Amino acid sequence: MPKDTGIGASPKRREDVRFLTGKGRYTDDINVAGQAHVVFLRSDVAHGRIKSIDTSAAEAIDGVVRVFTAKDFEGVGGIPCGWQITDRQGNPMQEPKHPILAEGKVRHVGDPIAAVVAESASIARLACEAIEVDIEALPAVVDMKAALSDGAPKVHDDLTSNLCYDWGFVEENRDAVAEAINSAAHVTTLELVNNRLVANPMEPRVAVGDFAAHDQSSTLYTTSQNPHVIRLLMGAFVLGIPEHKLRVVAPDVGGGFGTKIFHYAEEAFCTFAAKQLERAVKWTCTRSEAFMSDAHGRDHVTKIELALDADNNFTAIRTETYANMGAYLSTFAPSVPTWLHGTLMAGNYKTPLVYVNVKAVFTNTVPVDAYRGAGRPEATFQLERVIDKAARELGVDPVDLRRQNFIREFPYQTPVAVEYDTGDYDATMDKLLSMIDRDGFAARRKESESRGKLRGLGINCYIEACGIAPSNLVGQLGARAGLYESATVRVNATGGLVVMTGSHSHGQGHETSFAQVVADMIGINEDQIEIVHGDTANTPMGMGTYGSRSLAVGGSAMVRATEKIIAKAKKIAAHIMEAAEGDIELKEGRFTVAGTDKSLAWGDVTLAAYVPHNYPLTDLEPGLEETAFYDPNNFTYPAGAYACEVEVDPETGQVQVLSFAAADDFGNVVNPMIVEGQVHGGLAQGIGQALLENCAYDENGQLLSASYMDYAMPRAGDLPMFQVDHSCATPCTHNPLGVKGCGEAGAIGSPPAIVNGVLDALASGGHNVGHINMPLTPARVWAAMQG
Amino acid sequence: MTNVTMTVNGKSRTAAAEGRTLLVDWLREGLRMTGTHVGCDTSQCGACVVHVNGVAMKSCSVLAQEVDGAEVTTIEGMANADGSLGTIQQAFQDYHGLQCGFCTPGMVMSAAALLKENPRPTEADVRHYLEGNICRCTGYHNIVKAVMAASGQQVAPVAAE
């Protein structure tokens, strides 16, 4: 029987009621009395020198409050990067300044040049058009390899080239890997592109800066996944505002998917301008503007080689990747193609030697940073594609080839630095095969053929590293921050609890699932527990939500704080019941003394904590409030096996996804309903990447896909119903909940399944196509079929 | 600026509108009814769908002055008279048809229009009808189930498939 409450149950989400009745409070719903509005004038050329800016006509327009340009930001820091990579020679990466408004040059379409603050957004928009900007257009670099060629135009004049870093991992293995490849019985080589994507949360970014003259404090309301991180980066590195004078609030946030992790110039602008003008300043991003200012995702060009011995055992993997950084380094950008990508190149397989080379490149495009999966989809895609290609070349079953090379002993130290704590890749593969009726595929293929269609079956595995991250480890790897999480549990006198978490929910349902955990631990109803998040003024310093870390890291902090609460409450109960502390048990919200019929309700003890008339005042402080910071000692490693069946129309190249099955190992699951929803959403984004989505630039750096007319978002009709399973659970061994994280799996595991499936379909029609780059549009598939 | 009056969720409401004021901005800023959302600027995403004189419309594509005097229903008007969730809203909660909630108002309003036209839609009908509403969180799976369930059809329970 499914449970009704607590861990493992699927109670209805409490946050849904406000969202379903129009009572959600998103950032754009916030208006501050007396606020002005800002609109940014953005570059319409990819690369150019700003010769002059004349704002006089704009300033003369009735209702314009002030026009800002770079000269108003002298002495103000640039937007900082949170991660430093050390290159193969041991040198730090090249790190250009990222000004709030363009200084001297514009470096991508959408780079903000000026900002008009006015009484209304429409006046500000009008005034933007009255600004006269003289820009000398310069040749743009868009293609990464061209950007690294001799004589290529430089995105940043003060850097030596467009190379941000040239990273090797594990550098000491470079020669050994080369030797293994040279002496291999078989080497499969694959060149591919991991297409540039735009995260596209449905809520565009919004920032409202406010300033209180009476105490000289600033407040920023913003669409962020991590308000504390924004406060630290913006306060300490950009505007020089100490934390006690800066509050950052991220209220209901309408999806993030990574692109709302980063600190953006518009946030700093609104906070800065509000202080200058002593009135609130609001910015609401339009969707077209989001396409040219939200950090993009993916955009890797990769060559991968897989070496096998005569028995088809994997012996070595070598990859060379060009990773697009765009024009500036976004907050996490340098870590994505390196530590979030290279460390996963062993996949689910015991390959003794791995070498990953990544060249990160500046181009005249929007900055690229983490998008759902961040580095791990890129690793999974190339690995699972090259294995499928090897199976085809060797004439072996792709499932058998994977199984033969599965890691089966845990903990497992990979050759790429990480240690997998648990996993059972046979179990998820077996489960997957039981879900998809592989034996019946031949008959289904025949049926498709009878309708003139080509049917394919694509299967792959994935593994990811989540629960970001052990601070001492990532510190060594270049992270400029610790990646722990925090929680404060405040028990009120009458027994209700408020949990203040540094995690942030922007669709994940923490208000429901976090309450389930605490309710289970104490044995009280979930409705006695309030989960508070998103406001630096009432939550402890925390790192926020990304990298499938909320439950594994934030949930663990909450468990630790609740354990402290229970320990103290037991001491109070022992005093009141005149029993030994070790004899006190807490069960279903009651304290009992072992071996007696004495008991106290949860609420009796909490009241005693705040009305301490009968209380161990000599041993304990009154009150019942505890904080815990949890820093994991390893990543978590969700893994699984995915499969899809697709049908290709050979006349048009149109691909239809007929079915998609996912067998995931997420360790323990707190709320199965929410977990399955996370997988569904991830699958849709992965299938979107594989079939529909592409952020396209022309050779001059013009963004061709800057609206939903041009960027193909997956719609209801593009997707099938999904089959998902998470029953093959090997609990994480190093966090108190045994959880691994589920937010990114779908987006990581699904693109190779689709491409493998389409190529399988084409092969059944006699088209032996080695690879097609995503998205697999009808035109690309049809062209590949023509040879 | 001209005053525009509409019957919104059964109540007569008046607020000023410029000639260029969109219905969605009139609702959000004029009436401060912020349940209706703006997710794009090309009439593609459907987060702003409301009913105007009983017809589902993207309120980002209608000028407020154009529909002066109209009867408008928004997400704020979809609950039962006693304040409990209406049938479609309840199905969205029961079947986890929403995550971040941003596209949800438009989804619910489109679903209501669908069920008025087609009280027992097939899965394909639902997917086709919702082509004008983009959701980035759910992969549509649970939205489709919620709409089918709201039409009184049997669907598999959540977390049991």
UniProtKB/TrEMBL annotation, chain A:
InterPro entries: Ald_Oxase/Xan_DH_a/b, Ald_Oxase/Xan_DH_a/b_sf, Ald_Oxase/xanthine_DH-like, AldOxase/xan_DH_MoCoBD1, AldOxase/xan_DH_MoCoBD2, AldOxase/xan_DH_Mopterin-bd_sf. Keywords: Molybdenum, Oxidoreductase. The keyword Oxidoreductase applies. The keyword Oxidoreductase applies. Residues 21-139 form the Aldehyde oxidase/xanthine dehydrogenase a/b hammerhead domain. It comes from the Bacteria. Pfam families: Ald_Xan_dh_C (PF01315), MoCoBD_1 (PF02738), MoCoBD_2 (PF20256). One of its GO terms (molecular function) is iron ion binding. This is Xanthine dehydrogenase, molybdenum binding subunit apoprotein.
TrEMBL record, chain B:
It comes from Jannaschia pohangensis. It comes from the Bacteria. PANTHER family: OXIDOREDUCTASE WITH IRON-SULFUR SUBUNIT. It holds the Pfam family Fer2. PROSITE patterns: 2FE2S_FER_2 (PS51085). Residues 2-78 form the 2Fe-2S ferredoxin-type domain. Transmembrane segments: none annotated. GO terms for molecular function: 2 iron, 2 sulfur cluster binding; metal ion binding; oxidoreductase activity. Keywords: 2Fe-2S, Iron, Iron-sulfur, Metal-binding, Oxidoreductase. The lineage of its organism: Bacteria, Pseudomonadati, Pseudomonadota, Alphaproteobacteria, Rhodobacterales. This is Carbon-monoxide dehydrogenase small subunit.
